[in-house]
Amino acid sequence: MADTELFKQARNAASVAYVPYSHFPVGAALVAKNGLVFQGCNIENASFGLTNCAERTAIFKAVSSGITDFETIGIYGETDEPISPCGACRQVLAEFCPDEMPVSLFSKDGTVKKTTIGDLLPYHFKDLT
Q: In the UniProt entry, which residues are flagged as the active site (predicted)?
């Protein structure tokens, strides 16, 4: 998927974020290898620890739909510089996505920073069984 479309999908996801506390919407567009796009937004809770980020929302929607093979993800924030996922999201992404999977980080004006899952979280925790 082209960056322009990935940006639009992630920005669209942010438009429905539930952010009554931070007023900081974030959106993610996770593209499965079969072409399906799973959008996620951040969903806050008065008990802040129960808040869920956009990236995890997208992953959980895909996995709960039986999809676990992914091609790329775009993450959008209403920020001046491209936004980066938190540590929890990085670990969840590392659980389901190959290290070489492309990641596009977007700012509010569409500036993009390209990286990979492995670069976002080198030495991530892996199944040790």
A: 55 (proton donor)
